[in-house]
Amino acid sequence: MIGRSDLASLIPLDGPVPAKTFVVEVHTDDQAAYLAELAPSGVEPTGDAYLWRLPVAGAGEFLVDGLDQRFWSFHTIMPSAPAAAWLRDRVESRRDTDWMWLPSAHLRHVAPAALSHRVRTEFDSGRLASADDAAQDLRVQLTGSHADRLLDQIAAMPQYRHAVSFHSIEVIMDDPDLGPLREAVKRSGLFVAYGEDFVHHAQFVRTVVGRYANLINAIEALALDFSPQSNEEAGALGLALEVDDFVGASFSGTPIGIRFSRQIIDLPGFCDELFSARAPLRLWGQPEVTEGSAVVDAVDLHMGQRLGMEIGRDWMRIYLTAGSCGNTVARLVSNLQARFDSALSLSQPGLQEVASLEPVVT
Question: Above 90 in pLDDT, residue 352?
């Protein structure tokens, strides 16, 4: 029976087909049962309690690593098209599963010490922008040393700054012990690796996922929580109460603010598109739109959870409640960067720091 040490031979980085890792966010208390639902045709356990072989009929197999019990790694050497299609059908049809939605800066700074070899930006505003915008759509792909510098130069031009959203990046690294590694990363959490040592690739994936997990944790730490307080709990705090049925409460959390670098010209059209229930945003709601703002009690179709939102001409507030999934906000931010404003920022300095991977100067 195989174990974790066999991943290097089962997922070679120097084979005829590139090694791939899809990172998927999963909410489950029973990993084996979840995988059985995902692939009813059969899942094979291994000698590692957090590693499974998942066959895909006629295409190959995934080696599924659930050691990180929230962000799972689906390793494979299958061709990209069938592997991505098989996972997409399952991820986007389930409420307990979602992609990893990397913000643009997480790609821009994916490996600061590495040489960027290929970059790609995909900005497609659709109905979220005005027909008068200087950049409604922007697609740039460049291969070469320090490829990211071209996008930096475009972003320095005020009229195009909002449209430079990193879609994917490929970097080249070298380690004296693990050898060379060329790693391509897409914003949906797909990693494609060429190199000599699977451990090098696995370490790189863990680093990127770790940064993203920090962002999700920071988002969820701001969630609104209203906790009733009983007489007994109040007494433990040293409060003298005479009314037997008194119940107090504590409140924590704060709305998550987004600041746009540009104005929303057509607010009703923007809201119609944002809350259309379509992928990739997966938000549904019926906003109340006034002249300069909108309010909506939306539903996130990822987890079926409600979240309140307010939208102004150049700002947004998100009211995430305790227990809700922070991936909702990360997905919204990543897709707003790709479709409306790549230069947006988060109002809370600590949140902006983990989203931009740069210290916030106050």
Answer: yes
